[in-house]
């Protein structure tokens, strides 16, 4: 199964436009979680460049990301953003060729270096240390978080 990653680098036309975007974006999780093939979305402020924002999303197939782009909610959000909220949106798409997990247990020092399937990332990240059972932190969704993720396997 192919995994697709879409990356966007965005500048808004004003701080007010960004605040309005955050209202629209806060509801996107409810729509993404219903989409077959959706895996992960993260949005963050660039730490060194005020006004520069980054987003990545991962999908189980090119068809699943295309389905999202045809979604009524997504279409309206893009239309709203294109009417003045966004000054610049640079979109890049990639096809995943491999994933690896590198972990060093803070309790026993065990090194893990293993490939894993992106479609089961949350399951993999939730696995404890195989030697001592240490439970690694796993990001959880919160009402105000800008990360949304689910396994598709």
Keywords:
single chain; 153 residues; alpha+beta; five-stranded antiparallel beta sheet; 29% helix
Summarize the structure.
The protein is built from five helices and seven strands, in the order βααββααβββαβ. It has helices spanning 15-25, 28-32, 62-70, 72-85, 121-125; strands at 4-12, 38-45, 52-59, 86-95, 100-104, 111-115, 147-149. The longest helix is centred in the middle third of the chain and has 14 residues, at 72-85.
Please give the number of β-strands. Answer: 7
Question: How much helix is in the residues?
Answer: 25-40%
Radius of gyration: 17 Å
Estimate the mean pLDDT confidence: 90
User: Gap between N and C termini, in Å?
Assistant: 11 Å
Oligomer: single chain
Helix-strand blueprint:
Layout: E1 4-12, H1 15-25, H2 28-32, E2 38-45, E3 52-59, H3 62-70, H4 72-85, E4 86-95, E5 100-104, E6 111-115, H5 121-125, E7 147-149
Antiparallel strand pairs: 1-3, 1-4, 2-3, 2-7, 5-6
Helix pairs in contact: 1-4
Describe the structure.
The strands form two sheets. The protein has a five-stranded antiparallel β-sheet with strand order 4-1-3-2-7. Strands 5-6 form a two-stranded antiparallel ribbon. By secondary structure, it is an alpha+beta fold. It has helices spanning 15-25, 28-32, 62-70, 72-85, 121-125, and strands at 4-12, 38-45, 52-59, 86-95, 100-104, 111-115, 147-149. The longest helix has 14 residues, at 72-85.
């Amino acid at each position: 199964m192919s995994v697709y990653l879409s990356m966007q680098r965005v500048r808004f036309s004003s701080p007010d436009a960004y605040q309005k975007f955050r209202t629209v974006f806060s509801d996107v999780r409810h729509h993404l979680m219903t989409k077959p093939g959706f895996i992960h979305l993260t949005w963050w402020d660039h730490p060194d460049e005020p006004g520069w924002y980054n987003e990545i999303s991962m999908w189980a197939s090119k068809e699943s990301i295309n389905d999202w782009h045809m979604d009524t909610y997504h279409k309206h959000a893009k239309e709203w953003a294109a009417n003045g909220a966004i000054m610049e949106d640079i979109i890049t798409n990639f096809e995943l060729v491999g994933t690896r997990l590198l972990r060093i247990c803070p309790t026993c020092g065990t090194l893990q270096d293993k490939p894993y399937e992106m479609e089961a990332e949350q399951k993999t990240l939730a696995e404890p240390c195989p030697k001592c059972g240490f439970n690694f932190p796993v990001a959880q969704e919160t009402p105000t978080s800008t990360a949304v993720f689910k396994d598709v396997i």
